[in-house]
Amino acid sequence: MKLATLKDSTRDGKLVVVSKDLTRCSEVGHIARTLQAALDDWAYVAPRLQQVAIGVESGSQPTMRFHEHDAASPLPRAFFSTGGSGGFSGPRDALLLAEGASDIAVTAQVAVITGDVEAQVASADAKDGVLLVLLASDISVGNGRAVSTFSPVAVTPDELDEGWNSGDLALLVRRNGKAVDSGSSGKQEPASAIAAAAALHPLLAGSIIGTGLGKTEGALSIGDTLRIEMNDRTGHSIFGAIEQTVKTRGK
Q: Out of the domains of life, which is the source (predicted)?
């Protein structure tokens, strides 16, 4: 199942179920108005959303065209993430930095959205906390984090087949159309990342955790365009693309 949040006049947008090929979507406000609302009652809501997803693929569910440019972050704001809580940039929004910003760096990786996770959970049990998977981009200026962005679409782990958490699907990071080759490829198990995040306190449903999988780091400059995506084994985009241009605020 693939889920996205479309921008509207509210802070948290509206939840939609997206087709596997990322071309169509179906509004599901009658089931859950927002992704956070779905996560808060996942055991009840997820099966209903899955039925919509089946209908989207079979043609029995009404759909409309899905445009990645209309999407906010799947969770426009979150209670907790390894980059901090708060609001996130949309996947196609410009990266607006202060004038004179330098030492701009990007860290891209696979992230997960969790359900409620107990404090000090064992790594063996932490994998059960993964509800959705998405891509993450963190922009830092100097030693401080400036902007966090997530892919247009978040997917349930079954969309990635067995072994998705072993880093066998390549994370594609491009700067001005050229691959960013940092020589860094994270192989951390998502369960370990969740257990580490929950070492001191429980995680609330909707927490976003960077896993380190596919971790890629590179430098950016004002005017650069960054694109991050991941394809399945047939070459089709799984999460849609994060594509952003680095700009100075007010210009």
A: Bacteria
